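Priority: medium. Attachment 1 of 2:
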């Protein structure tokens, strides 16, 4: 039943999964207007039911904190760039020491993935360093793999290539590792 709802919500249902234009939707396609709030609504609903996301089990306080982060981020109710930066800094401060575990939870990984593009170099390096020993497992994890992917995407940006040799080196090593193990990550061998 749930899978059927997801297909309907994404605009599929025409057999091939392609929209009316004939091309399947992939990557950064434009979302429907209510799609962001739907995630937030579901997260709040699941919290009331005591279901705190699949994957790594976070405590109720952590789950509710990340629901609030998501809500504030989606509202974009920041009065200044300084206020927004403080919010991002505080949000990532909550993840310190828990980067791997929080990246492996359904909701927290989604929130981290959403705000990661606004993170500082220090935060990006902290996540990269934390992921190092568990990289093989994280690349196969249904939730953490998205955070790893987003981190690689951010680290590959020209901005960081010029400004951060450490982040650039992390990107090179990690990208090489992922490419060398791509078959295992995609086919589960």
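Attachment 2 of 2:
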């Amino acid at each position: 039943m749930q899978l059927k709802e997801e297909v309907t919500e994404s605009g599929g249902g025409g057999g091939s999964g392609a929209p009316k234009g004939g091309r399947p939707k992939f990557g950064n396609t434009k979302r429907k207007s209510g799609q962001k709030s739907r995630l937030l609504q579901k997260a709040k609903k699941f919290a009331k039911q005591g279901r705190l996301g699949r994957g790594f089990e976070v405590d109720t306080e952590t789950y509710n904190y990340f629901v609030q982060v998501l809500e504030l981020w989606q509202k974009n109710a920041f009065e200044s760039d300084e206020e927004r930066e403080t919010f991002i800094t505080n949000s990532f401060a909550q993840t310190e020491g828990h980067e791997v575990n929080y990246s492996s939870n359904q909701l927290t990984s989604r929130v981290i993935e959403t705000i990661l593009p606004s993170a500082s170099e220090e935060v990006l390096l902290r996540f990269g360093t934390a992921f190092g020993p568990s990289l093989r497992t994280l690349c196969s994890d249904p939730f953490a793999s998205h955070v790893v992917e987003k981190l690689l995407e951010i680290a590959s940006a020209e901005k960081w290539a010029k400004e951060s040799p450490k982040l650039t080196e992390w990107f090179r090593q990690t990208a090489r590792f992922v490419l060398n193990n791509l078959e295992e990550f995609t086919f589960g061998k």
